[in-house]
Amino acid sequence: MSTSFSKIAVLAVLSSAVALMTTGCATKRATSEVVVAPLGIPGGQAGYNGAVIVDNSSAVVTGAENLQAVVYFAFDSSEITSQAANVLNQHASLLSSNPNAGVVIAGHTDERGSREYNIALGERRAQAARNYLAAQGVAVNNVRVISYGEERPAATGTTEEAYAQNRRAELSY
Questions:
Q1: Contacts of 137 (CB under 8 A, 6+ apart)
Q2: How far apart are CA 52 and CA 139, in angstroms?
Q3: Is the model more confident about 31 or about 108?
């Protein structure tokens, strides 16, 4: 009798463990430990810690403080709008007049879509901004891109207004 009771107890514990494992995987994680750096880590750094990876003069940083640092995108798009072009033109002017200055462009998305898709879309947005700056004469080797996907929202919530604020590329000096 004690062996059959032991078997039943073991089966109950195992089935509880399986039930906990399968229900725990059904939800989407709110955050992730992984950040994709499409261009890799710049030389001289042991690892990327989430900080801006450029070292500019105080004049460049001061000049950048007066510029809008965010460009916005339509849903599921990496197309540069006329409003984004106006913002990027100001950055192109600053970068062209300071040929040694560097900028990091971080691509972001709203929470809709898979994590993998959002990382790819964030990268396309950052690359689109980089390509626009290059077309304006900015040296591409001074522009770094990174994608955070949905991981760093500017606004919380599930409204269209919140989503629109999260579909962006941010320029940092």
A1: 92, 96
A2: 18
A3: 108
User: Residue 140's closest CA among 151, 154, 129, 124?
Assistant: 129
| pLDDT, position 55 | 86
Per the structure block, which two tokens stand in for 33? 């430990």
Both tokens assigned to 22: 């399968």
Q: Please tell me the distance from the alpha carbon of residue 122 to that of residue 145, in angstroms, as a whole number.
A: 10
**Structure confidence by residue, pLDDT tens digits, 1-33:** 555 545 555 445 545 544 444 444 443 444 333
* pLDDT value at 85 more than 90: yes
Q: Give the DSSP H or E segment for 147.
A: strand 143-149
d(CA 123, CA 36): 9
Q: How far apart are CA 138 and CA 110, in angstroms?
A: 28
Residue 148 exposed, middle or buried by CB count within 10 Å (0-12, 13-18, 19+): buried
Least Cα distance to 74 among 64, 84, 66 occurs for 84
